[in-house]
Amino acid sequence: MTDNLPGGTFTLAGRTVARLGYGAMQLAGPGVFGPPNDRDEALAVLRTAVELGVNHFDTADFYGPYVTNELLREALAPYDGLKIVTKVGAVRDDKGGWIHERSPEQLREQVESNLRNLGVEALDVVNLRVGGGEDGHSPVPGSLAEPFGALAELRQEGKIKELGVSVVDAEQVAQAQSIAPVVTVQNWYNVAHRGDEKLIESLAAQGISYVPFWPLGGFSPLQSSTLDDVAARLGASPKAVALAWLLHQSPNILLIPGTSSVAHLRENVAAADLELPADALAELDTIAG
């Protein structure tokens, strides 16, 4: 059944998925490094997500590293009915630093590592993560032809089913599309951090999903008196309102809020049913100034 999936549905790489998915990053230890504080709870989060109708999971071998992929494999393999999206383009050093690695050889090694740790013969969707900038999470203009072309070759070899891009601008999306089909774009976007509206609209017209990372603010949780006021008036949490706002923006937006708590997972999934009246939407639209 797909008519009651959290947040409604969207077709991602040929499969109907719930618009409210799950991002596995927070299952790793502090700083997304090392094992989880509570492994049993981490496994319970993943299994409960499936019970609640979540069938789109976002992960990466550099979360941990390897931790979230190994947890996904233990909890959910063989992933029947699930869409597992992973990312390449970075690795971790011994101290937990984030190191860009985007040469064709490095990307092939990362793909092979994701295959091993997820325990699959082909990866559903692989996002090439580029960008960075001063804040580490914003698009940086420039060609992605070489790294994306390398992933396109791996797709032709059957190791990857579909491709996406992450931390990119509209020109980079177009360049990637000239090399191979793009089924998803993942960028930093939330009620307080905007700027991708034209890109989102363009992708929607093409039937391509847009997945905002850090929908709840990331390492720095969203802080807004306006958000708090709207949430209080609606009898909801600020997090639920922030997620509901994103779902309202465009039908191709897929959410991947993360948590290491089953209780918080249930709260996030419940946000998919929250209705935002017009006056609340108008107030929320003022947050980003």
UniProtKB/TrEMBL annotation:
Gene3D superfamilies: NADP-dependent oxidoreductase domain. It holds the Pfam family Aldo_ket_red. CDD domains: AKR_AKR13B1 (cd19088). It comes from the Bacteria. It comes from Amycolatopsis halotolerans. The keyword Chloroplast does not apply. InterPro entries: AKR, Aldo-Keto_reductase, NAD(P)_OxRdtase_dom_sf, NADP_OxRdtase_dom. Residues 19-287 form the NADP-dependent oxidoreductase domain. Keywords: Oxidoreductase. The keyword Oxidoreductase applies. This is Oxidoreductase.
